[in-house]
Each structure stands twice: as C-alpha cells, then as structure tokens.
C-alpha cells in the first residue's frame, strides 16, 4: 500500500534507509560481523572468476559490485548484460561462478543464461528480492535483498539493496580469504543509512533543481568517472524511463570522443564528483561542457565540494558512494516525471518484470 504517498516510487525511495538497516541486521551474526552461509562462502573461495549477469538497473548494480569483489576480495569479475551473454557467450575461465542479480527473479533474459550455464555444469548464486522466484529456485544459492515489495516500475530501493548485498558478499569473501579490510563494513553501511535519511529529507531542494535544470529540456547527460560513471548510467536510465527525457550516461573521459558534439546552449549535464582520485579530471570535464554552454548540475561529496556545486552529499566511505549519490538522481527523475504529468509508477511501454526474451 502507498499509504499517504502519491506514488510507490517516492515511498520506495524513502524506504532506502530502512532497507539498509534491515540488510545490516539480516547479514550480521551476534558479534557484529558479516557472516554468510558457508556454502556461498565456499563457492566464492573456489571460483577463479565471477560472472555477474543482469539487466537494466540490476546490471548497473552489478557494475558497482564488480569494484567491491575486485578491490576487497581480490576476485576478477566480468559483468554482462543478460540478453547479450545468452547469444554471444564469452570464453569462460576454468572455475566460473555465476551471480545473477534480479529484483524480481523472473527476468527471462537472465533465466536463459542460467539454463545455459547449468547445462554446462557451472554453479550459480542469485541475488534477488523474491526468494521463491524462478532464478532463485533454479540457482544453487540465493541471497535475499530484504527490500520489501518494489511496485514502481522504476527500480530504486532494489538497486541500493543489491549494492549493499554485493558489498556484504565481497566483505565475507575477503574475510574468508584472510584479507584485511581497513574499515568496519557494517559501521560504514550504517553511516550510509544515515546519509540516505538526510537525502530523503532534501526533496524540496532536489525538486527545485529539477525545475532549474530539467524543466523544458528534451535531453540530458549524466557524467562521472569510476564509481560515479556507473551511477551516471543508472541516473540516465531512471530519468529516461519515467520522464521520457532522452538521457545518456557516460564516462567523463569519453566526452571528447564524441558526445561533446551534442552539447549546446542550455544542455543539462549532471556531473557526479564523489571520488577523490578523479575529482580533478571530472571537474575538467565540467569546465569543458560549461565552456560550450551546458547547464552543469554538479553533485559532489562533502570534502570534495567546490563553489558552484548544486548539491553536496554527506560523506560516506569512498567505495559506498553509489548508495548515496543515486538518491538525488532518483528524486530528479521522479520530479521530472511528475512535472511532465507522466505516469510515474507505470511508465509507457514498460513492465515491472520482463518475462519475455
Ligand atoms: O527484476 P530485474 O531486476 O531482473 O529487472 C531488470 C530490469 O528489467 C529492471 O531493472 C529495469 O531496468 C527497471 N525498470 C529499471 O528501473
């Protein structure tokens, strides 16, 4: 039920801090440590390469998950769009582990990959919001998102839940391999939940930004580098699917290789700046688009902010920034759709779960 909310999407955006805390509770043992099922732990220890398979927003969460597994757990990861993998399978490593990410657990493109890799005898783990779903039943292992039902077609709380569970999976594997972490993951996730709460209280500010930057535009660009690049893909998808504004997310460094040709007077460019090591470069990209007339909306993180930034996010651990930077992008999309009188929860031509290939 929506309760007092005008739309499920807004309710689900607001639920993100609660979901974060639920995930923290569900995945910790008595000593405030992350502890996963021993079979999942073993599967992660035994593999020489993880293949993440997903579609849409879940694919975008997978891109973030790759960073966690590679940086924290030292496992090479490939992330694949399910519909591509199915018909154009890459060369596999000797001991692959397949990780399916799917809110619904019913996405036909992902299922088709699961059927094929099972025929080949490879192990599979499904990360889903629906434990009894097809992808969950047919895989060897399941990790539950604990996000509660997601009704709006535009995925919001499932995306952040997927990223949090992927972080937990990576941390558990790192612990199993005796790799040292220089931070307390549950503590950092708790700080993320608090930061999300601050952000969901800033709806008026984001609504104003929507008026200032996206009111009449026909297109918009999202740029970022490293983790911010992955989130910019998600920001663009969110905006296009519910507001029908043509939106594209891409890596800041790719601008000069083509897309910059599209920048003209007033083109909105949403730039994310949450990563210290690329802050200088993304700021350079912002200058390049501004010099060509773009209306740049910079979303930075406390500690990296500069004069003129439109929105400053509370500081969280650098690996976990996607969990917070996505929130204003979800809200931007929501208000853009609302201002255009679009059907926010049921955008045209889309279904909540895509059960055809
Ligand atoms: O249920 P799934 O996570 O497998 O769904 C995958 C995509 O269809 C889904 O994320 C879609 O891209 C959303 N509408 C995005 O908001």
From TrEMBL:
Active site: 352
Superkingdom per UniProt: Bacteria
Keyword Transferase recorded: yes
Entry EC no(s): 2.6.1.16
Keyword Coiled coil part of the UniProt annotation: yes
Compartments (UniProt record): Cytoplasm
Name of the top EC class for this enzyme: transferase
Subunit structure: Homodimer.
Protein name in the entry: Glutamine--fructose-6-phosphate aminotransferase [isomerizing]
Organism in which the protein naturally occurs: Virgibacillus sediminis
